[in-house]
Amino acid sequence: MNSKRPVNLDLGKFHFPLPAIVSILHRVSGIIIFAGVAFMLYGLDLSLSGEEGYGHVSELLSGFFAKLIIWGILSALLYHLVAGIRHLLLDMGIGEELESGLVAAKVTLAIAIILIVLAGVWVWAM
Fold first, then answer.
1. From CA 74, how far away is CA 62, in angstroms rounded?
2. Crossing angle of helices 64-91/51-61, nearest 10°?
3. Can you tell me the distance from the alpha carbon of 86 to that of 82, in angstroms, rounded to the nearest whole number?
4. Rounded Cα gap, residues 122 and 8, in angstroms
5. Coil, strand or helix at 17
6. What is the spatial distance between Cα 91 and Cα 14, in angstroms, rounded to a whole number?
7. Cα end-to-end distance, the chain, whole Å
8. What pTM value is reported for the model?
9. C-alpha span between 77 and 88 (Å, rounded)
10. Separation of alpha carbons 95 and 118, rounded Å
């Protein structure tokens, strides 16, 4: 038996390449979207329950915390969309090389950040 095997892995020692980070964030954004659907469905159910429920949801959505949650869900959705397009291009064989994969990861992050900032401006202006 090899005695040099690590007992506990220190994930802080590992440095993932940018395409791997973009791919991991794609999965994380999917989880955030899945959890955010529960929040949105609750609001939809409450707003459809009657005039009083609609007023309550309208009041809730004007608050800071609700806008932050909506912006978070929109951010995850926009990032997931952009990274999903990247993954579709990878499935077609575009950007599989090391250099083009790094460029695609940078472009994915840049486009996602621009869309997330625009979504933030839109949510906070409402």
1. 16
2. 80
3. 6
4. 45
5. coil
6. 27
7. 63
8. 0.84
9. 16
10. 27
Tokens read off for 93 = 């064989």
CA distance linking residue 22 with residue 5, whole number of Å: 29
| Chain centroid to CA 15 | 21
* pLDDT at residue number 2: 64
- The sign of the dihedral angle between the CA atoms of 36, 42, 47, 52 is negative
Q: What is the pLDDT of residues 8-29, one digit of tens each?
A: 777 777 888 999 999 999 999 9
DSSP structure string for 58-116: HHHHTSHHHHHHHHHHHHHHHHHHHHHHHHHHHHTTTT-SHHHHHHHHHHHHHHHHHHH
Q: What is the pLDDT of residue 73?
A: 96
CA atoms of 95 and 110, how far apart (whole Å): 16
Residue type at 49?
S
